[in-house]
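Example record for the data management plan.
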Amino acid sequence: MKKNQIEMYWDVGSTNTYFALKLIKPLLDRHGVELRLHPFNLGYVFRNNNYELMKESKAKLRNRKRDLMRWAEKYGLPFSIPREFPIKSSRALRGSLVARRHGKELEFVQKVMDRYWEKGDATIAEYAGLRPIAEELGIDPDVFEALAASDEIAAELARETDRGLERDVFGVPMIIVGDELFWGKDRMEFVEDEIKRRAVEASTA
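Corresponding structural encoding:
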């Protein structure tokens, strides 16, 4: 990994990934750091660990929702809980890999997250809902869908997810700076400290 890059594993079904993408931007700008994204099929991981979010206690789910709204209020973000949740995220994850080939990965991910977590647009679970986003980014929607639905992209998504698991990614957002892993939207101070520490090391090497 280049010293001016940090990495983030993400899934569109993760509320905390929405916030992390918003909160990490000022940090990137301050330090001139680039963000490298990795799609992580959280649904696949959950199924293989027999975990179902919506089977958590009602008290915990209520608290989780209120806590998310506190974050939205604190940072002035137009976040809302979509009426349709959870959704299948694999098509959006595949789409990001197609956008990567066009140099538009971050823009694609940001638009997908905003559509779902700000506008409640659950159509992004299907290619029909992703095609307009591709077109907005200058990617031919027919080419986009054909490649996103291909075995090639399916295999690439599986590799990204498996590689994440090999690197001890157990959930998203997972931010990686060098060999240090930071899980969650509320780890930005630690992420920035690690960026600064590595910058000092590089300058004295």
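Summary line stored alongside the record: The chain has a mean pLDDT of 93.
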